[in-house]
Amino acid sequence: MKRVLITGGAGFIGVHLADRLTRDGVYDVTVLDNESLGDRSHLDLDRVRFVEGDLRDRDAVRRALEGQDAVVHLAAHTRVIDSIVNPAHNFDNNVIGTFNVLEGCRELGVGRVVAASTGGAIVGDVPPPVHERMAAQPTSPYGASKLMMEGYLSAYAGAYGISTCSLRFSNVYGPRSYHKGSVVAHFFKQIIAGEELVVYGDGSQARDFLYVGDLVEGIRVAVDSDAVGAFQLGSGKPTTVNELLELMRDATGLDLDVRYEDFRTGEVRYTWCDIDKAREGMGFDPVTPLDVGIRQTWEWFVNHRAQHTARP
Questions:
Q1: DSSP type of residue 29
Q2: Which residues form a coiled coil (predicted)?
């Protein structure tokens, strides 16, 4: 049985990944999380070992890493706008946190690290589709922190022989994303609250939306593969915000009230990714159509709105 640590494993993607890895009885899963956003109650604690701790605490990281075969490093500060407001906090979490994970792996002999990265925020506002060969030119502290993370992964692979892989996620959406700031989650929360939806820009900006079930299958494949370097994980298809709103109208059956505001500084306007390298290099194969994923996500939000809106 392969022993896998998931950092940030009590969050949106981590809970889905823990469920997937424990489903077949092939993996022994440990989760490290400080519960600043995640919640251990969302995990099946009969099948998952939980370690409470922060990536900036090297002792907590070492406790979680003891005896592991591989690490899926998801824990991070991920909001672009927040990174612009407070770049130091972003750096501490994403760069220092990653360094502590890699140092723990080096000291304890953990041989495989698969880390969550980003495509658009690293390469900046370039003509899409985004691919792994593009030169890095981040436009936000968040993008810069992920570029530094990828650099350290490469360095520890070269210097210490740790097998490392960076997965550049596109815009991930799906059930259990209530506390995320992603556009799908944010819009659904506004709809449930009966609020006007605010679009920054004219709605023509495009993103690559990837259903969380397809993402975690890609992560699982990466954990078991020998793939090294950076890989784009997305749907490989562009969707504008206005197109997304139409799918949300269809899913909710509501006539949505939308207000358009100016574009925000630091955000990429058009980005989607080329996933050929991930398809060929490790068999990544997203299968969930966007309309199906949006409908499933909306159903989850509706079914769980009481427990979330009741929280302070």
A1: E
A2: none
| Domain of residue 49, CATH code | 3.40.50.720
Q: Is 142 designated active site?
A: yes
Pairing outcome for strands 27-33 and 163-169: unpaired
Cα 278 to chain centroid distance, Å, stands at 16
Instruction: Indicate the pLDDT class of residue 280, thresholds 50, 70 and 90.
Output: very high
- Name the one residue in this structure whose structure tokens are 């159903």: 299
Question: Does residue 194 share a domain with residue 103?
Answer: no
How much is the pLDDT for 310? 44
Residues 150 and 182 in one domain: no
Q: Is residue 312 part of a domain?
A: no
Query: For residues 31 and 18, is the Cβ–Cβ distance under 8 A?
Result: yes
Residues 198 and 253 in one domain: yes
Whether residue 157 is found in the same domain as residue 244: no
| Catalytic site residue from 27, 142, 156, 173 | 142
Using the 8-state DSSP alphabet, how is residue 47 labeled?
Answer: T
Residue closest to 305 by CA, chosen among 130, 162, 188, 146: 188
Name the average pLDDT for the chain: 94
**Quick one: average pLDDT of 10-29?**
96
